[in-house]
Amino acid sequence: MLDGACRLDRLVDKAHELKFPRARHHDHGAMHGVIDFYKAAREKGIKPIIGCEVLCRTRQPGWKRKPASGGRDVSSYLD
Predict the structure, then answer these.
(1) Which are the contacts of 6, defined by CB distance < 8 A and separation ≥ 6?
(2) pLDDT tens-digit readout, 15-54
(3) Which residues touch 63 (CB under 8 Å, ≥6 apart)?
(4) Res 40: pLDDT
(5) Which of 56-65's residues contact partners 24+ apart within 8 Å by CB, and which partners?
(6) pTM of the complete model
(7) Cβ count near 49 (within 10 Å)
């Protein structure tokens, strides 16, 4: 959750100071800071760009991942 943590108020203030017309907020697996970022950016006249990194795991029924030569079966955590 904190792998890319930053203070949104400082981010928006710096973008405003540097006269950036747009700023991006990109969360990892959740969208916790989006509303605060959006409101702060709009107050400073900055166009907010919002993104999220989402991991999707899909597989066919009965599918098993084959371990690399000499490795262990890594599919057990998906079952």
Answers:
(1) none
(2) 999 999 999 888 777 788 889 999 999 999 999 999 888 8
(3) 75
(4) 95
(5) none
(6) 0.62
(7) 13
Does the structure show a pLDDT above 60 at 79? no
Token duo for residue 77 = 């955590």
- Closest CA relative to residue 15, chosen from 42, 52, 53, 50: 42
Burial classification of residue 37, based on how many CB atoms lie within 10 Å of its CB (0-12 exposed, 13-18 middle, 19 or more buried) = buried
